[in-house]
Every structure is written in C-alpha cells, then in structure tokens.
Fold these 2 entries.
Entry 1:
Amino acid sequence: MKLTALQDKNVDELRMLLGVDAKKDLLLKKLSELGMPEIKNEIYRYFDTQSLLEKQYDRIRFVPKKIEESDKIEIVDGIIKTAPKGIRVYYGEYKEVDTAHFDPLYYLGHLLVSSVIIIELDGDVETEILHRFTQPDTLIAYRLVIKNQANRHATVYETFEGAHAEGSLVLYGYDMHIAKDSSLRFLKNQTMHNREYSMIASHKISVQKQANMVYKSFDFGDASALTLLKAELDRFAHIEAGHLLYIAGHAKRGIVSQIIHKDEHTTSHQEAKNILDDNARGIFDALVKVEPSAKYTKAYQNSKSILLAENTYMIAKPQLEIYVDELEASHGATMGQLDKRQLFYLQSRGISQTDARKMLVMAFANTLIEKIKDARHQERIKTSFEAAFHASNKAEEHLPTLLR
Amino acid sequence: MMKIENLKANIGSKEILKGLNLVLEEGKVHAIMGPNGAGKSTLSKAVTGHYEIEITGGDIVYKNRSLLEMSPEERALEGIFLSFQNPVEIPGVNNAYFLRTALNAKRKHEGKKELNAAEFLRLMKEHLESLGMKSDMISRSLNEGFSGGEKKRNEILQMLVLEPDVIILDEIDSGLDIDALRAVSEGINKMKNGKRSFLVITHYSRILDYIKPDYIHVLKEGKIVKTAGPELVAQLEAEGYESIEDENQ
C-alpha cells in the first residue's frame, strides 16, 4: 500500500481506497478536507513525510490473539500480547473521535483500524506499555484509548522496541480521556535508531474539569518521528507538557502541538529542551490557544535548544493565540551552542572533552529529567539518555583531540 | 619545573604577549605583578590552553614536554591548575559530581584506584572544614549563585582535592574580604610542600602579605621587564609600575 494514493481524493474515492463503509464518512470527510500531508501543509512542512508516504508498505492482517498475563501491557505490531492483572485492556469501537483535530493522519489512523485498543485505568494504578515492532517494510497502524477514573491518580510509562522493523512506518496514537478530578502522568521514553522504523504519532487528550495531565516525552536517537498532539482543557484543568529531544545523525524529530484552553481557570505549562547533533533536525511547533470562554487562564510555553554541530537545524515556533484579556501568558525560545567557557572550565580540571560535553548536555537536560517524580522512571530515562549520548559520541571518542 | 621561552600570543588579531620569558622553579612562589592590560591573565590562559589564545611564537616547556602540544585536560592531568579570576557558573552540574569526576580522572591518569562516593565525601568533609565552607556547597550546582568569596573558596577546594604541581592563582584576592582572604591564603599555604610551584597573579600586594613570594616579576606590555626578590613589592607600592624599566634592554 502506498499512502500517496490517498492524496487529493474525495470522500467516495477515499471510502473505496480504504475499504471502509459509510459509517465512517465523517472521518473520510475530515481526511479529504485536511488532505494528506505534503510539503505545502504547514504542520508537516518541516518533517519529511513525502518519502515515508510514497513508499510501498506491506499491511498486517488484524488477527487478535489471546491476551496473556504479564507485568506490563505489551503490544506487538498493533496487537495486544500481554496485560497486567487488574487493568482492563481490550479491543473495542471508539465513538468519540475528535471532529476538529488538526492532523489528517489522526483521521487516517482511525480509518485504518477496525477497532481500537482500550485501556481502562481503574483506581490508583501504575502501568507500563511496551510497543514492539517486528515486521520490516510494513505499515503498522493502530490506535489506543486511555480512560481513567474520577478522583484517581494513574501513571503510564511507555517504551518502544523496533530492532527488526527496518523500513516500517508506524502510525499510532492515543485518545486519552482524563476524568474529572483525576490525574494521569504519562511518560514516554523512546530511543529510535536509524534503519529501524519511522513513526507518526497523533494524539488527542481531553482533560476534564479539575483534572491534571502530565505528558512528558523523552525522544532520543537518530531516526525520524513526529508527534502531533492536541489537548483540550476544561474548567480548572491543567496540563504540564515536557519534551526532551536528543537526536543525532540525520534524524528529523519533534512535536507539533495545540493546547486549547476551552474554559475558565485552566493552566498549561509546556517546556521543550532540544539537543541536536550531526545533521539532525528538531521540530517544536507548538500553539497554545486561549478561547473566548477561557478567562483567568495561565499559559506558559518555552523552548530551549542546544545545537552541537554546524549542520543541525531547529525549528522552534512557540505560538500563543489569545481571545481573552484576563489571563497570564508567556512564551519564548532560545537557541545556542554549548558554552565554551563552561567547557573550558571543566577541561581545565582534567575532565575529557567528551565527558565535559556530556556533563553540560546532561545539565541542560536534567531540569526535565529530574522533574520525574518516580526515581525508577527517572533512572531509566537517564540511562536511555546516556546510551544515546554515547552512541552519538562513539565515533568522536576515537578521534585525536585536535580533530574534534 | 616550567620554562616559558620567548612566548608570543594573540587574542584575536591583537598581540598580547610579546616574547615573554619566565622560569618557574620547583617549590617556589612566583608573583606576577603588572598594570591593567599588561598580559597577566593572558599568560595564565596560555599556560592552561585557553581557546581564546593563539600562540604565535615561543614555547612552554614543562616536565621536558612542550605544553603547547597538550589539550587543556592533558595539561590539568599533568598537574597544572588555574584558579580562575571569574569562575564560570554551570547550572545543573552538581559541584560534588564535578569534583569527583575531575579527581577520578586525575587518579586514573596516575594509575591510582578511583574513589567511590563514600571515600570522596570523607575527603571533602576534611577540606570543607579547613576552608570554612558549608557542607551544602558541594551539593549545589557548580558556582551557581555563589558569592564572589564562595567562588574563590571553591577554587581553592578544587586545588586542595586535585593536588596539582603548578598552581596559577589569577587574582585570587579580588572580591575577598579579610576573613575570606585569610582562609583562602591558609588553603594555599597548606599546599606548599617544597616541590609545588606557585604563580600568583595580582594587582595588589595585599595577598603577598599572606602568601610569601620568593620572586616578584613585573609584567609590562607583554614581557617580564624585571625580576627581583620580595623587596620589590615595597618599591612598586611606593613608586608604581611606571618606575620600572625593562632590565632586558
């Protein structure tokens, strides 16, 4: 299947090409209106979608298997393999698809699946979701829905493995419903290697009244992936979004987000730290929209980037769109290199240039990593970060100092 | 210990050191004095391999090797230590982690066993007390939010821990009150062992009341123009740098 075949098609043509029935016409209409991603499309402008979409992919036939019990939720090529006792994980129909999402691939994702994976987090729980991709040159498409309970606090830690999925494209994403007076902490730790899979993840998060959402993404490696995130906040709801990007090689990676304050007394805090090496391209294209009904909102948005090599390229677009007067809002972006004075200071104490760079890069990233409350998760993310650092500095360590 | 021969160095396109000669003797305290802009700090940067400095001529021979071939970290591992005039703040880098990394890099270089966290903390406790530093200073980010005096004490703490062979103190006395000056000087004097060499760069003679120099070198316009014993300090105090003429001419 080539996804470029879906470009510039009307609803009838899309219905036929995707093999779906008329019940999905609303989604087809949205996909047709928004159009498949291309270079002219603002949200995909900085991400090289064309080469991903014009490739011929195999499809996986959806054959659900018996779900085994394990300590984590494991999803292999979009099929649930294991789930922990006490957490309901099942396939089901999803009727609350957002009808105003900005991303066409959000709709395509929903059109490509006959059912979604529903995860119900009952009570105060903590769980891990492991996504494994095993098939090469395959379009792996699936959607997940997360629901938690009112007045409860849940944590989800998400990881990925894809060593054998060379040349595959993963189209996945969540619809998350954060119940009234609840909180969900969602931590994504994803190291992607070149010659594995590419990914486009399209999410929708609904944060209901007085609920608190924490969404933290830790993206490392040298492959390409884009996250598209839309979050809507009800009255007194709060979202804290943090994104740490440490990419190298020819990676193109980042986030396009819209945080929408829909009601009064909503608060959002979005912070991105981007570290780019080699020829990597980073994307932070983030809109915070305060609707006319969202008086007394507080919105903070910031992006800081360190460019470690000359050929890196960072797109930092923090944006505020405000329709009320009664609010507090700020946004900003900074970009620079490692501070030479700091580097020299560390080296002048006998610390090698590689270790000094690592200390400074780690210090930059630490403000996000150290905000993770759970020490175990913090340690796992630190380990991933250090592994990514060593992978991208491995070649350099063998060079004579003067050549670095 | 170290021989600086006809050293010429630029910062940008401007020549700052214009053929500087200096021999640092083992176990001696050498004070470099001179007016603003004479090249005192440039000298310290040239010895430590600072990125701003371009060496255009001459050599620095140390332990029978040219220092100019070595990276800044190699120079440090070989025993050269610069106490910075304005130590840079590094938010997010824990002071203790930094110092332990530096110490273990040196120990590894010397073929010694690296110190674990407990051994390192024991060593720290001893040095912190001797410098009158609060123990929480090593758990803070490196120099972040430190007062001028705290930064200088932190430099001396690093010196005590790293036990270098050549110690360059670049205006260690600037911004210090009397108590801090005394504590810092005591830390420096503790390091004297008859083998270590000191290069004390200063504008004023005050620090030399505490750290007794063996030699005074006057640096003017990128060259050492006069070398004498400690008695030269009194002349400089009375007559200023303008009274000093280049004894090499």
Note: Chain B has a mean pLDDT of 92.
Entry 2:
Amino acid sequence: MTQTTHAGVRGSAPDPGGAPRRPRRKGGLVRALAPLPWIGPATGLILFVVIWPVIAMFQTSREHYSSLGVLVGSAGWNNFTRLFDEADLGGVVVRTVVWVVAVVGATVLISLGVAQLFNKEFPGRRFARWALIAPWAASVVMTSIIFKWMLDPNNGVVYVLLKQLGLVKNFNTNDTNWLGDPTTAFWCAVFVAVFVSIPFTTYALLAGLQAVPSDVYEAAKLDGANPLRTYWSVTLPLLRPALLVAALINVMNVFNSFPIIWELSGGGPGSQSATTTIFMYQLKQSSIGEAAAMSVVNFGFIIVIVLLFLRASKWNSAED
Amino acid sequence: MALTACSSSGSKSSGSSSSGNVTLKLLAPDYGTPGGPDSSQKYWQGIVDDFHKANPTITVQVQIVAWTNWDQVATQLQNKQYPDILLGDAPQELAASNLLYPLTDVMSASTISNLIPVFAKQEETDGVAYGAPFTTSSRALFYNKKLFAAAKIASPPKTWADIQTDAAKIKALGNGTIGYGLPLGPEEAQAEAYLWMLGNGGGYVDSSGKYDINSANNIETFNFLTSMVKAGDTEPSPATVNRTKDIWAGFADGTVGMAGGSGALIPSITKAGKLTKDDYGVVTMPGKTGPLTQALAVHDDITAFKSGGHAAQIKQFLDFAYADKYQIQFDNEYSLLPATTSASQSLSASDPVAAGFLATVPNAVVYPTNSNWDTLKSKIQQTIGTAAQGTDPSKVLGALQTFATANN
C-alpha cells in the first residue's frame, strides 16, 4: 500500500516495481515478486473476468454446439464461413455503422447545446441539472420498455395522442406500427439511445466548459470577436479533450448497446432492425458457435475503437 | 433437504447407489405462472412426494424453468450439468449426441404401449425411441362470435377466401379490431406457418421425409399471407408479433376476430373475463379449398439422461408419473391434452372441449423428426415471418431450405 501511494505521489515513476522503499534483501527473485501481493488480486481478477472469457469465446467460435447446447465436436472455421454467408450480415453491419454514427452524432450535437445552456446562470438551473440525470439514472431496459408501451400498436399513448389530433385513423393498422416496420423501429431505437446518452455527454461537456478560464473570453471580447467566432475559435478548441472523451466513450457504449433495440423490436422483423450485437444474440438461438464467431468479429471492432481511443487520448495529452 | 442433496451428489459421482438411496434430478418447464398457484412446481412436487412415499429410497428433485428462460437449459447442458429426466423438446438432437437412454431402458413395456401411437412414433431415431411424449395439444381455429355477429358474418370460415373476406369485415368494425391474428414472431412462428402450409398441401418435409421448405406450394402460401397482411386483414407486421402475449391475449380481450389456438388458449380467455363460453367458437383450421383434413398436433417430451446411471430408478418414477391420474391432473390444470391412450379415453368422456381436440389426434400431422429439427426450428422462428411481410417468400424459404440441408 505504502509503495503504491508512494509511486502515485511521485506520479512519474515509470517502473513502480523498481521504486524501492524496503531495503534490498535476498537476491532478485524475492525482489521481483515483492509487488505480487499488491498487484496479484487485480491481475487475478483481470485474468478471470477479462482474459478467460475472451479465450473461451475464441474456443467456442471454433466448436460445433447443437441448438440444445450439446458439444458435437470441432467446427474448424465453419462457424465463420456460415456467419459470412448469412444473407442478413451485410445489412446488419451497415446498420451498425449508421446506428453508431447517428446516435453519437446526434447525442454530441444536442449535448453541446444543453451543456452551453447549463453553463449559464438561470432560475431553476439546479433543478434542470438534476432532472437531466433521470434518463441516465433509470435502467435502460426500463426506459426502453416504457417507450415500447408508449408505441403499443393497440393503445400506445403516442398513438392515442396522434389519434386525438386526427393524424392516426385506427389502432392496430400500419399507422400505429412504428415498432413493427424495420425502418421506423430503427429510428425509434436511435431516438431512445440518444435520449439515454445525452445526460452523460452533457455532464462531460459541462465539466469541460467549466474548466475554460474566463480570461480567454475577456481576451476574445477585447479583440472584438463576435459570439459565434468566440465559440468556434475559443470554446470549441478548449473543449476538445472533453469532446473527444465523451464521443469515444459513447461510441463504445452505443456499439455494444443491446437492451434498446432488443426491447423495442427484438431486432425484427427477422434481423431487419438488428445491429451486430443483437444479431449475435439472434444467432445464439440456433447456433452458439456461430454466435461466438459473431462475438469474435465484434471483439475485433471493439479493439479497433479502443486503439483509436488510445491514440486520440495520447494526441490529446500531447497537445495539452 | 440440503443434506439429501449433498449425499446424492456424492453417490452420483461414484456412479451407483451403494447406500441404496438415490436422488433423481427432474428438469421441467413451467406451463403455468412461475411462482403462481398454477406453477408446474406444484404439480411435479405433488407427484414426487407421492412417489417418495411409495419408494422411500428414491428422492426426486424438481427444478422448474420458465419457458421464457428456457435458454438456461441449453447453458446447463453446455456445461454438462445433465438432469436425469428432462421434459422439453424432441429427443433426436440429444440422442444423436448419445446422451439418452433408449426408452425401453427407462419405461416399462406396458407404459410404452399406452402412449398415443402418432406421438410415440415421433420419438424414434433409426427405429429406436429415445423419449416419450408427456403432454400434447392440437390446433384449431378460434373465432369470436360477438365480432362475427357485429360484422354480420353468418358462419365460421371454411376456406382461405372465407378467412380473407371475414377478416376484412371484422377489421372494418374499427376500434383497433384485428381480423385474423397471425403470430409469425419468434415465439412459435413454426406452428403458425405450418398451419397455413398444410392448408395448401405443403409442409416442412416431402412424403419421403426430406426437407422441402421452398416448395412451390409453400411459396404460394406465403404469397397469400403477404396479400392478407398488405390488405390489412391481419395485424400489421406479423413477423414481430408473438402468439401468447400478443395474439392470444388480444383474442382473450375480444379485439382479435380469428386466431389459431390450442386448448391452452382457453384459460387465458377465462382469465381475461371478456368473453364467455358462448362468445367464441372452435372449428377446424381452414385450408385453401376447405378445412384441413388433418390437424396439427404438437407434443413435449420426456427424455432420460444416461450420465447419472439411474435407469432402474428412472423407470420406476416414469411408470409412476404416467398414471392416468397425473396425466389428467396436468390437462385439467393447463387445458392441454394427455399423451396416453387410457388418459385420453377417460378425459374424452368427461370433458367435451378436450374431446373435440382429442378426436383429431390419432390422424394428426406432427413436426418433422429429422435430427436437426430443433436447430432449424430456431431459425424458422427468427426468419419465416419476414416472408409474409415484404421480403420475397422464395428468398426466405430458400434460405431456410439451404440452412436445413446444410446443417443436416
């Protein structure tokens, strides 16, 4: 404990194992093992909950399981061939890209505005800030189910309203079928995903805005910059670190998001509103191995996103 | 309880029962409401307790899994946590993995000969049965007499054309009424699709038992369904609509004019309290040119796993549990049908509704028994609905045919 805090305080020690506080005793081995009691549990935990499942996933993707879960034998690369032969896969991948871009894009744009608003003094600001936490604090499954009920073709409250406004003629028809039609179901899911992503993004950006020193704005004012110019040339560049972190965390979250689409449409009809995560789960019903192959592909996507994230944050700190 | 559980796992690992006490594990789905008064936990616990009284050296542990969590069973099997007795899907896939006892090892000849032949035949792999039907049901068309009267329809439909015109009239009543409820969503699409395929002389397999999913007849059937969906004679987007929660609940609520159903729909109707016994009728499912000559009947099966090595005890238990008394108790509880001839006879005598359904059983059509049927069934449930909702039926059915033959 003392050792780690010590290293933490110094903050720069590149090799914490080599930061000796205790006197050197018996040879190199003991010294090399000395940090083990401290880092052992964390390493063990990572091995157990991260590395082992990854290995199991790769193994499963090369095995042939019956739909009842019985291991039939090795499948070689068959699960992958079958996955890439799925007629729906192309649409699913394209949809996943649209899903991530649309949700993260809309979330960041809206959050930029909301954060700007929340950075200004106005009566009831405290209450408004609290209220924004609600979609974040509520379980995503719960939120999705409520939206599903609101869009129930037989008596969803949204359709009841539209019917009273004369925009919908009758229940249980195509007018009240937003969740049954793949296109509208997908965009409803995008809406819900933006709705639940805005709070975190807004707060991340708000923290960034509050960190902008007021003197740069005074300088901009003295130089005669108009508000738009100030926002573009002063606020946005200084907000970049927060913006980048918020966007990349959202990309990972949204890519992996399962409950929203699953609750709203189940990825259906067929797989016509599914993203890769949903598709993986749908495949699991008939072939655990093929679902694992899909997971491996998803894992590849995630690795790419993480590498981008690491690179961006390095770039971030280098520019700071 | 905990003590017996411990000792049993000890004796299990040694492969036999040196102490003379054996514990069997029974895994079954919940046909009622989990935790509710009609939970299957109660039903099985009753049998198990009676059995233990008669056979003090054998204890049966009951594990009930909700149908909605049935995936959990696949996980259990994947982790090699085999029960001794499983109530659930057809035995072929498990038998192909060499996990099951042949039925003759775990059930006496007299019990076997009492099983309804059309279902018993379904349990075979290469002529050997590896399971036994436990509960069955057969499908028919339910129609709402109130809506029929309101739409001025004189008699229940006999042909597809009748369904189409009646559905249009019922839909025209407004208020969100649905003419024909077509559940082609993932829950049980394979049954609804089969009901319609049968009406046009189609099905999943040809007369020689080979998959024939994209036959001309089946494609024609789905073209017809697509036209019904387009015209608004059904609910919109049937591929996302499920049987129990959507269509049967809607029928019980009085908003669905016609729907395919089994006896299991009757308790929901009673529970909802909107329709009385006289407000709905049950007729044979219409086909393209006339009512189906053979009803679709489905069954859930008992299978026994070899891993525990308790064939003799399983035999004692199954012979006990297949008594008429328990079969009929199950059917009264869940409005399903028995799997034994003797129980059918006594139920037919006492229950006219069940008798109507039972009359169709000996001549019924059943699902294929190909060893990959369970895998294919999951795929059908996921995709076949799109063939009635805009995607070209020949494409959807063609993909299923390819899947069926490639994974054989």
Note: The first strand of chain A starts at residue 63 and ends at 65.
